[in-house]
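Re-run with default settings, no changes from the original entry. Doing this only to confirm the output is reproducible before filing.
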Amino acid sequence: MKCLVVSDSHGDRQILVDLLAAYQGKVDAFFHCGDSELTVDDDVFKQMAVVQGNMDFDSQLPEEVVQTVADTMVYMTHGHLVGVNFSLDHLLANAQQHHAQLAFFGHTHQLGVERHDGILCLNPGSISYPRGEFARIGGTYAIVETNDTAIDVQYYDRQQQPVSTLKFHFEH
């Protein structure tokens, strides 16, 4: 299974259009972790699962998405409603409740990936307004690839170039 995860685009619709065009047919699914500032009926969301962030005012956007992609269960939420600024405990509990192997979130604008109790928790960072240690990259998204033995995560910059220092491998 291979999916693209992006978050916190904050009205930058063109970067989403560009990612969809570049990765169409190359990934199994697209996920947007919220704060797109677009409406639920925007054409980009015909191909991309999306959740409502704290800066999304379309109440039709769901607060969470649970989706199976090639036998892998994915749980996604923006993060503001589960307190990701303070801990991943609530995020993990929700992911466990849905039997998810992957938990995607945004909100903090800081990329990060870690594994807890068999669940990979991933924040792709903000594609438009990054913060933290990797803000100098100028925006990031992630490609997550799973197989029977491992999960691989590669972060990319806005120019769709892999960031060599941001590649992670997790054995099952």
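The chain is about 10% helix and 35% strand. The helical segments are 13-23, 89-97.
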